[in-house]
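Weekly structure sync, notes
Attendees: PL (lead), two postdocs, one rotation student
Agenda item 3: pending single-chain targets
PL asked that the sequence for the first pending target be pasted directly into the notes so everyone works from the same version. It is reproduced below exactly as submitted, 433 residues in total.
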Amino acid sequence: MPADREPLVGLDEIARLLEEQEGPPEANGRPTSRRSARRWTGIVAVGALVVGSAVGFGLGSSLTPSGNAAGPSGVGVVPTSGWRVLQSRADATPLRPALAIASNVRLDPEDDARGIRTSSGLPYATLLGLPRHGVVIVATFTVPTGDTPDPTFEELSLPLELRDATRFGQNSTQIRPARPLGEYELRAHVNDRDIVVHFYFGRSQPTDAMLTEAQRQLDGLVVQPSRSASQVAERALPLRPETPAAPTTATAAKVIDRTLACKTGYKAGALLLLATARAQGVTQQQRNLASAYVTTPADPLPTSQNFEPTLAGVTAGSHRPGLGSGGLGFDAKLCKPTRAAVAFSPKGLSGGFAPSYGSDAQCFPAKTVLVRVRGVFRRPATLKLIGKGNTYQAIGYVEKGEIMVRTTAGKPLVYADVADSGRARLFTAGSCF
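Predicted structure, written out during the meeting:
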């Protein structure tokens, strides 16, 4: 008998058997006959079951160092009872992602088991026929590239929580419009891997039982040794309410209010956030409106050692000679919309009125901070993506503006406000200086 963690049948062996049974390809590219299709159905169905069983044992044996009993490691999904899993055996590389498909129903034979390495990640035929109780989970693992982390991938730890997923509809299309699926997406950065998990439910509004079942399988996601977790239902429910996934720029409004998850950059080896507030100055040396903004060092520095992108800022007042204009803006690359609740308040912070030459503070936050920026305009203003798509900006007479920064755990770091009277205030946490 094989050892408990030894694969019953390897994926390469399954692929070889499937290729032997498939027969020569059609010369004209037409579909195979019904007879061959029935034969293929049986082979793939058996193959899917064997692969699911093999992965349950093989993920641990092939990716966990010998003698390590802490649990499976690597990237992939360990199937739970009643689920089938097809997946890559190797870890993701900068040139090749890793893929895992888990389903609580039998995969359609057209979603070819031997094509997992080159799969598009969409088991299309299975989804077209997905019954109302069916659930399919597709996880893609990639190695981040580029100089700046992608802020759409929030740094999380295992086990991931289904309730953090957002409803997903690429290009506002449905895979099967006549019987819409419930489609959700969860993006996370775990142990140097960017992970995109898509959930497909056989009904547009999944039941609590379906969500809990999907959470149990999501607990099998592996990016590092991970113990099994409890309180499955609490982490799966409830799903977040549907809200726009990105700032809307189509409609002018008197109040523009955005809550963002922003990435911070390094300076001298430490993550740094800089907050500034300035009262209006009208002397010969100072010609500025009341303003408040938070910045962070660019990492790596793209232009000079003094380059610091503005995460968010607001300027109050009107068009006056030599003073420019009021408005609101935030970084479109480092900051992404979030549903987190961030209240404006200087409670627990220290500070006060800022002079015209400015009041500054430095804080040392985590990689991600929550930033809320709000502007009350005298006349409706439109938020627009400007330049090369790096900044969202709305220009106009701002009567009052506010900025609040806190950690993802809820600790307040910065509060600043400005008014068209020329007043500016800045309050910061005791850890800032």
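Discussion points:
- The longest helix spans residues 34-63.
- Helices lie at 11-22, 34-63, 124-128, 208-218, 232-236.
Action: rotation student to compare against the earlier draft before next sync.
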